Structure formats: structure tokens, C-alpha cells
Amino acid sequence: MRLEGKRALVTGASSGIGREVANRFAREGAAVAVGGRDPERTLRTVDEIVAAGGTAVAAVGDVSEVDGARTVVEGAVAALGGLDTLVNNAGIDTSTWVPVHEWEVDTFDEILRVNLRGPFLVSKFAIPHLLEAGGGSIVHMSSVCAITVWEGDCGYDISKAGLNMLSDHISVEYGARGIRSNTLMPGVIETELHRSVMDSMEGGAEMEAELLVKHPIGRFGRVEEIADACVFLCSAEAGFLTGANISVDGAYSRV
């Protein structure tokens, strides 16, 4: 019960890494607000947690929009009685990987809107509640793409590099007031998002094989492994750990 008594908001928790993080947090004793845009899928995660004996509520909204992000945060606070843990996990990618000059402007804007503007907005509205609670932990789900180049995927890479800097700012500006902020930078993780991108991409099977070779550990990661790292960062065990951008990538970024 490493998170016993914690009140946590996890965005993008209707699938993939976010879903596993929300479930794991609840098993570790946290009360969890499950953030998501799709009410049905979001409630599915809530039902999983409750069925397993945990505490969870739905926080439905589009965090890339001001009103949506405010609704998600305020809904979580109202349901949980406060907030002292935040995981900014919501994110998207595109299956059309092309050189920079061929990128559609609308696609670029949408990725930055969800992957960078969304975490900024959620952090903006959540930080006052963390301060009211006397501090807390924020984890931003970045990517190894923040520090390496995935050729053809500039919008996603740029959004994650910006997310790292957002986390760095929070760690510096609020550290003395009790808020810790870190990023996790996964390599390729077996999720619904990864599967859908690879399956819909022209030459996706070849791309996936190339990515696998670049992971010296010899495999892609599992959502449980990212959740493990997230629990650690939000627990008392990580009390002196802030301002870190942590690779969880099977040594991909070292190649």
C-alpha cells in the first residue's frame, strides 16, 4: 500500500499505460480519478478498479481544451476531496510518418494540442490543489522520442520534448513548496496506441521490426513496467527525486 491515502488523477486512463497506472495506483491504496474523453471507456476502467476493491471515480473531459481540463481537475477534486497526485498521461500519435515539409499542419497542431497543451492545462488547474494539500507529485508521461529522433514523426517528438521542459519548470518553480515533478520516457510499449499505429502505417511491420532491433533488451516494454516506475515516483520513496527525465526504454536511448 505504497500510495495509501493518496488522491490521484490519471489522465488518458481509459486504455494502455494510463489504464494500468490507474489500476495499479488503486491496488497501492490510492483513491483514483480516471480521466478520459470517452465516457464509456473511462467508466470501464472505473468499474475494473471498483470490482477489484479499489476506489475510483470518472473524470470525463477533453484535457486539451481549457474548459475540459478544468472540468476534469475540478471533478476529480470534488469527488476525492482534494488532490495530491497527478499523472499527465493523455496523448496521441499519427500513423503517417513523413519528412518535416510533408507534415500536415492540422496534424501537427492536433498532436501538440493533446500532448503538450493538455498537460500544461491540467497542471495549471491541478497545481493550486496540490499546494493546498501541502505538496504532491506530478508525473508526465513523455517518451524516449523526447531525446531521440523517430524519423518521420516530428510532431510527436517535439510534443514530448516540450513536455519534458514543462516538467522541469514545475520542478524548479514549485519544489520549495512541496511539489515534485518528473517525466517517464518509455521506449516502445505494447499498447493499443502502438498496435493501431503500426497496423495502420504503410510498412508498419518493417518499421516495428526495426524498432525492436533498437531495443538492446530484446523486447518491447509492458504497461506494468511503466506503472511500476510511476508508483515509485509518486511514493514517499522518491521524496528527493524531482526534475528528472527518466528513460524506461530497454536501453533504446543508449544505442
Could you explain the architecture of this structure?
Helix 2 (39-51) links the parallel strand 2 (31-36) and strand 3 (55-60). The chain is α/β, with parallel strands linked by helices. The protein is built from eight helices and seven strands. Helix 1 (16-27) packs across helix 8, helix 4 runs parallel beside helix 5 (154-174) and helix 6 (192-200) crosses helix 7 (204-213). The chain has helices at residues 16-27, 39-51, 66-80, 105-132, 154-174, 192-200, 204-213, 223-234; strands spanning 7-10, 31-36, 55-60, 85-88, 136-141, 179-186, 245-248. It has a seven-stranded parallel sheet with strand order 3-2-1-4-5-6-7, with helices on both faces.
Which regions are unreliable across 5 or more consecutive residues at pLDDT < 50?
Answer: none
User: Gyration radius, to the nearest Å?
Assistant: 17 Å
Helix residue percentage = 40-55%
With strands numbered from the N-terminus, the spatial order across the biggest sheet is: 3-2-1-4-5-6-7
What is the residue-mean pLDDT, rounded to a whole number?
95
Total beta strand runs: 7
Put simply, the count of helices is: 8
Return the string of H and E elements.
EHEHEHEHEHEHHHE
Q: In whole angstroms, how far apart are the ends? A: 36 Å
The major sheet is characterized as: 7 strands, parallel
**How much strand?**
5-15%
Shape: globular
Structural class computed from helices and strand pairing: alpha/beta
